[in-house]
Amino acid sequence: MLRAVRGATTVEEDGAEAILQATEELLREVVGRNGIEEEDVVSVLFTVTPDLSSTFPAAAAREMGWNSTPLMCAGEIPVPGALPGCIRLLMHFHTSREKGEIEHVYLRDARSLRPDLVQGGGTK
User: Fold this and answer.
1) Whole-angstrom Cα distance, residue 91 to residue 61?
2) Is 3 a catalytic residue?
3) Strand partners, 118
4) Is 33 annotated as catalytic?
5) CA distances from residue 58 to 21, 79, 108, 123 in whole angstroms, order as listed
6) Buried b (16+ CB within 10 A) or exposed e, 38-60
7) Residue 62 annotated among the catalytic residues of the structure
8) How far apart are CA 13 and CA 2, in angstroms?
9) Of the listed 73, 97, 103, 111, which one is catalytic?
10) In order of start, what are the domains of the chain with their CATH numbers?
11) Average pLDDT of the chain?
12) Is 39 assigned a catalytic role?
């Protein structure tokens, strides 16, 4: 089955190192919690809030060896009052898991985006 998983995290500053580290942490949590292998991933769309422009979040996936997976980055709509410093992802992947078994991952301050999806431990 083709499924999708969402995830988000935040950084405290617009710096390439901070963005890459937070994105790698988010990717590792998403694939770890959902038993995803890179070869199962169809594509990943990353978005960042307008205050983040130091680097592309997809660079973190490339540094992890994801060199044959289609990756794309885009900017979020600048909605007044939106959570700043936010990196989001939408990953499409093949799995045998049912839709309700997919664990969406929200780390750091991004937990406030979807408190209904934040589970116990590991949401940092």
Assistant:
1) 12
2) no
3) none
4) no
5) 11, 23, 19, 21
6) eebbeebbbbbbeebeebbbbbb
7) yes
8) 35
9) 73
10) 2-112 (3.30.1330.40)
11) 94
12) no
Beta carbons of 31 and 5 less than 8 angstroms apart? no
Q: CA–CA separation, 102 vs 111, rounded Å?
A: 17
For 75-109, the pLDDT digits (tens) are 999 999 999 999 999 999 999 999 999 999 999 99
Marked catalytic residue, from 33, 97, 111, 114:
114
- Least confident range from 18-22, 96-100, 106-110, 113-117: namely 113-117
The one catalytic residue among 25, 38, 76, 103? 76
Alpha helices, DSSP H, located in the chain = 16-34, 58-63
Beta strand 2-10 pairing with 41-48: unpaired
pLDDT single digits (tens) 31-55: 999 999 999 999 999 999 999 999 9
Q: Which of 12, 28, 62, 63 is flagged as catalytic? A: 62
Give the whole-angstrom CA distance, residue 92 versus residue 11: 24
Please say if 28 is a catalytic residue.
Answer: no
Q: Which two tokens stand for residue 105?
A: 């991952």
